[in-house]
Amino acid sequence: MSLGPNSVINNVVIKYGGLSNNYQYPALSIGDAVTVTNSEISNNYSDGVGVSGSPIIKDNIISGNGGIGIKISGSPTITGNIITAGSFSSIGLKLSGSPLVSANKISGFDYGVYFYTHNPEQYHQ
User: How many helices (DSSP H) and strands (DSSP E) are in the chain?
Assistant: First the structure.
């Protein structure tokens, strides 16, 4: 699922998405001016959420995904989420850019928060 500007996801459940053969695309791919709140993103085959730009991800449950919980580039606000590992997950938050990250509960990962450099076009479909 990929969302355009000014989209709002509130109280939605996203399960069993993503690609199982190469883990390249997250179950939810979001960019600028998107808000995701009070939702559940779980049990997907790849990363839970791929973020670019400056969206808001607040008060969600992101759990049991096959890859990274939230993979970030840009300057989003990530706050108040519960992020737990899936069977092949090793990183809770993978960060690049200047995100504002606060008051999240991250558990079950080898690396709770990991900073990296990558190709920002990775999540554009």
Answer: 0, 15
How many domains does the chain contain in total?
A: 1
57 in Cβ contact with 101 (< 8 Å) = no
Better-scored residue on pLDDT, 112 or 14: 14
For residue 6, tell me if it sits in a domain. Answer: no
For 120, which DSSP code? G
Identify whether 9 is part of a domain: no
pLDDT tens digits, one per residue of 13-40? 999 887 756 556 788 888 888 899 999 9
* Cα–Cα distance for residue pair 73/112, rounded to 1 Å: 16
Lateral strand order in the sheet of 70-74:
28-30, 49-51, 70-74, 91-97, 111-115
- In a domain, residue 4? The reply is no
Q: What is the pLDDT of residues 87-108, one digit of tens each?
A: 666 678 888 878 888 999 989 8
Query: Of 84, 79, 55, 81, which Cα lies nearest the Cα of 68?
Result: 84
- Radius of gyration over alpha carbons of the chain, in Å? 12
